[in-house]
Prior knowledge:
This protein is α+β, with helices and mostly antiparallel strands. Helices cover 34% and strands 24% of the residues. It has helices at 2-8, 25-36, 54-68, 99-118, 161-171, and strands at 39-49, 79-82, 87-93, 122-130, 136-142, 147-151, 153-154, 158-159. InterPro entries: PspAB-like (IPR054383).
Amino acid sequence: MPGFWNALLGRSKPVRPDLDQLFGLPSAAITLQAAAGFTPTGAGSVCFATIEGGAFTEVRQEVQALLDADSERGGVPVELIRDDFGYSWLLSRRAPDELPALVNDLHAVNTALQDSGFGPQLLCSLVTFRNTEQRPLALVYLYKRGTFYPFAPLPGEKRDNSLELQIKAAIKDDLRLEEDLSRWFPLWGAPGL
């Protein structure tokens, strides 16, 4: 009976995060390049609410050390960045043609934080792309929704809504997309973008 009342009152069960959705990004990147000319930049990041405390610091340091130790990274360390809104970002950089390795990095960060009990602090992950005119685009994974959306920033904290809708139509068969456009949050100044 609770399902009936939830439906009647407009409540829905939250979607469980499915981090394996991140592995759809390489396929979406191929579609994105063919449909709109955007290619990966090699940058991706995980955003989480900043938490103080020894347990969180230890997990973050372990994840950072694990990713930094990757010999294929070519000496580029993973960066921890705090934004103007107080959120933390773990930024990973790879060669643009190493999108599967970048996705593995993002998956490892999300999984380590989730498995250590910090899942509620995870907000989103993003992978960045550029076209031949160097226009930025991000495919953003919403951790708590288990969905993706495109974010196409323009100068002056504006966004290209028509491009975002074009990208949504192009990659709809590659990724689970967020249908509620009010959840397509702008990520102004996101590291790597």
